Amino acid sequence: MPELPEVETVANGVHERVHGQLIERVWTSGKPQTFKSPESEIEAVLTGARIERVRRVGKTIAVSLGSRGEFLVHLGMTGRLLVSSPEVPLPPHTHAVLSLSGGNELRFVDARRFGRLSVAAAYEGPGAEPLTIGEDDFVALFRGRKLAIKAALLNQALLHGVGNIYADESLFRAKIRPRRQAGRLTRAELLRLRTELVGVLKNAIKLGGSSVSDYVDADGVRGFFQLEHKVYGRAGEDCKDCGTGLKKVVVGGRTTVYCPMCQR
DNA sequence: CTGACATCCTGACGGC
DNA sequence: TGCCGTCAGGATGTCA
Fold it and tell me: pTM here?
């Protein structure tokens, strides 16, 4: 499932291949819940627009269209944003096709339809940016919060971009149990969490993200960070650091895996 | 306001 | 082999 590193990889890859190009034609599938803005509005804004920049904001891909605003793509769980030749057959579950002046198509494909397309004037994202937030601001995010630290990490209004994989992986590396109350973590623990979170996100970006279900980048290529996972997807296996059996619980409504020995 | 929980959707996987 | 039930999860909406 695409989180910050996967979305960043896709956004950068798409940017390289489409910036500066004109959107000549737009086709949309008509599946209602895929479109957060009316399809007619999306088509009107996109058709004839020039793509200035493609970047990541939280887990959202924001395509800047100059004075026309931004085209926002949220990949949900199984969404893919692909740059393809028109000669390549449309994959099943294609929901939008943008024909570009460079001759290629920008395609949005999403089997499970948790992804969303919309247009907006400008997009800032709901929360703070994990890669650039300072120490004091990071610590302040969790002050007084009674929910579990894992649930707090998943809350996009606090930090945006972190999902289930990198929440579990950063908590393991920071040696913090996922169910600890966020507001009761010490400053030292939160600073450790910030360091490990930034580290794991940057490392994952370097490796092209984690391909666990069907995540691929703009060229359809899989990432490699799943090979570095210490806990995510490893329920029932042994901790790579200490050999203790990893535990699986539900926190914040999400499957959560942790090491009861390493994480306190 | 804060937090907990159900809901959407379909492919993959396990069991028999 | 093939069928069927279960599971996965980001954002949103509802409820306490």
Answer: 0.92
